[in-house]
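Section 4.2 – Deliverable D4.2 (structural model, holo form)

The reporting period included a commitment to supply a predicted holo structure for the target in complex with adenosine monophosphate. Inputs used:
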Amino acid sequence: MYDDNNIFAKILRKEIPCNSVHEDEFSLFFHDINPQAKIHILGVPKTQSIDFVDFISHSDQEKVICFFKSINLVIKKLNVNKSGYRLITNSGVDGGQEVPHYHVHILAGEKIGSIR
Ligand code: AMP
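Output (structure tokens):
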């Protein structure tokens, strides 16, 4: 069950500030508070989704498409399309997810190390 007391829900409700890079009707993108690369952006859809499977399974198609289009837009806005980036989403205990609101990480700005 989705818990709307999670930190990203509070950020979406503007109860907690964030360093925003892009916002639209369906999503918000902002700088990670503990960056793991020179550029570390979090992309959060404005749906009550716990993780990727929850988002894809229970959201309107329009919202899913718009979220992924917004990721594309932000990658271009960051100007890292040519240099490269890593797109990550964590889910659950094994995936190491800390915040139970679906989100993607965009890591860029330097060579990102191997996954393991
Ligand atoms: P995950 O492990 O995929 O759930 O990642 C959660 C991410 O949220 C971590 O990289 C945290 O550094 C980041 N984070 C937690 N609180 C905040 C916040 N208030 N503003 C920005 N990023 C945050």
